[in-house]
Amino acid sequence: MLTWTTVKVFFKKFWAWCKKYWQLFVGMAVPILLWAITRDRNKSPEMLDRVIKDHEKEIDAIERSYELERLQKERAKKRYEDIVSKIEARSDAALIQLDKKKKDAIKKLLEDNPENSENVTNKLAEILGFEVILDD
Q1: Angstrom distance (rounded) from CA 103 to CA 107
Q2: Closest CA to 126 of 106, 104, 107, 112
Q3: Deepest in the core among 48, 54, 105, 131, taking most CB within 10 A?
Q4: Which of 23-27, 79-83, 85-89, 127-131 has the lowest mean pLDDT?
Q5: pLDDT for 26-52, tens place per residue?
Q6: What are phi and psi of 3, to 5 degrees?
Q7: Is residue 72 part of a domain?
Q8: Chain-centre distance for alpha carbon 5
Q9: 21 SS3 class
Q10: Contact 38, 45 (CB under 8 A)
Q11: Which domain holds residue 29?
């Protein structure tokens, strides 16, 4: 019965033999490759033409995919720029309105409470969204 150890030992011996007699394998491989390349010469030009056509198709597919990717990137960039400009325009308009509202509220607060600084401070913090911290 074969065990794993026996199989391992066999392959180690076989590998050592192959390393020693590698020239034999090269000598056998060269005639086999020459025979495979030169057999049936009538089909060789047809195969070469088919390989060339397949290569051209593959190059065309690569170029089309590259062009499609480039167009998609351009569209995405343009869309990004459009969205950013819209957001900036909206935020600028909102900030201007918000500033005007805050200014009006501050003006009214100061007019209503000219003497009471603690009340003004608390309400001012409320309007501007700050937190009042008192040091003792």
Answers
A1: 6
A2: 106
A3: 105
A4: 127-131
A5: 899 898 888 887 776 666 677 778 889
A6: -115, 170
A7: no
A8: 48
A9: coil
A10: no
A11: 1-39
Does residue 20 form part of some domain?
yes
pTM of the model: 0.39
As separate numbers, helices (DSSP H) first and strands (DSSP E) second, the chain gives: 4, 0
d(CA 67, CA 72): 9
Those residues whose C-beta lies under 8 Å from the C-beta of residue 124, and which sit 6 or more positions away, are 106, 109, 130
Task: Please name the amino acid found at residue 17.
Answer: W
Q: Would 22 be classed as within a structural domain?
A: yes
Q: How far apart are CA 80 and CA 30, in angstroms?
A: 60
Residue found under tokens 């062009």: 67
Q: How far apart are CA 19 and CA 113, in angstroms?
A: 100
Reported as half-sphere exposure (CB side, CA atoms, 13 A), residue 23 has a value of 1
Q: What's at 4, amino acid-wise?
A: W
Residue 24 belongs to a domain: yes
